[in-house]
Amino acid sequence: MRIALVQPASGSGQEEPRNAEQALQWLQEAADAGAELVVFPEGYPGPINPANSFDAFGPLCQRAAELRLHVVASRACSARGGHGVELCVIDDRGEIAGSYLRTSPRGPYVYRDIDAWNFDYVESDTPPSVIQTRLGKIGLLVCSELYIPELSRLLTLQGADIIVYPAGGAINELLPGWRTLVWARAIENLVFTAACQNLYGGEEGVGTIASPEGILAANTGEGLIVADLDLGRLRYLRETKESITFPKPYATIPGLLEWRRPELYRALSELSRD
Question: Which of 97, 127, 133, 256 is the most exposed place for a label (fewest CB within 10 A)?
Answer without folding.
Answer: 127
